[in-house]
Amino acid sequence: MQVESCFNRPYKILVVLLMSIITVCFLGFVAAPKNIVVVADGVTTKIEVRALTVKGALADAGVVLSDADGYVITNADKLEDGAIVEVIRAMPIKVWKAGRTTDYSIGRGTVKEVLDAIGVEYGDCKVYPALSEKPTSGMTINVIANGAKMATEIRELPYEVKLQNSDALPRGRREVITPGKNGETKVIMRIVNVGNREFTREVAEEVITPAQPEVVAIGTGANMLETSRGYVRYKQVKQVEATAYTLAEGNGDGVTSIGIVPYKGIIAVDPSEIPYGTRVYIPGYGFAMAGDTGGAIEGNRIDLYMEHYPDAIKWGRRTVNMYILE
């Protein structure tokens, strides 16, 4: 008995031809060139690939994956133009389950992917850190039965101190710019009974309130002086013998040798040692300017103008450091 085909020969040829065209078009579409970025071993590479899979694209980029290594596409759902593929090298990870800790070397994008890759069942368990968390080197993943006894505890999270150099402060001086503030964390613990004693095992920690770091400036400025107006920079310090005078002791016409009416802050100097107009700071007197002179003022000798005679008498004669300001 002869069975006739349901398709005549011309139709068979047409179907095969159409299928071939569809296959070629499909392969041409998926194999179209894609510009991707590969991040592996600290190196970022931009490359054009035609691979259909991520592993193929990584091979095109010269990146070799071991079975323990993994990868994630950080900005897309699949390998497509513009995708960023990040390689995750195998790292040491511990898994604690049923009272037993097992060491693994595995690289994956999430805790869930790690457990799936090593074949650890977690469907009816609580997992800490969460399944969506990104694994880190040395992490311990805790897989705990739903009926396990758990406890939580709120703890203080100490702030850290961040140091930054400041040329506006004298060298070695510290100044708090932003005070630190402690935060809070919630610690999740597994309670285990051994005989008639109860023990706790920390399995996770969640930050409730982040700590605010304390920012401290460390002085790196040279030749800085602290005054009532803050820190000032000086270029030279001279040890001088300082006396005091009042308007009655001047030249009699009520003006200084440079033609200004004296006021608190004008000092008489030897212009050959300290030019007129020089700004200085004198401890116990304050900021001043060289604006007068006198017959007895020579070398490292200065005279400080005082508005009141008792103040001049109280000052007397003393040796002081005079800071010549920048």
From TrEMBL:
Key words, A-Z: Membrane, Signal, Transmembrane, Transmembrane helix
Transmembrane feature ranges: 12-32
Keyword Signal: yes
Any one GO molecular function term: hydrolase activity, hydrolyzing O-glycosyl compounds
GO BP of this protein: peptidoglycan turnover
GO terms for cellular component: outer membrane
Domain G5 stretches: 143-222
A Pfam family assignment: 3D
Protein name according to UniProt: G5 domain-containing protein
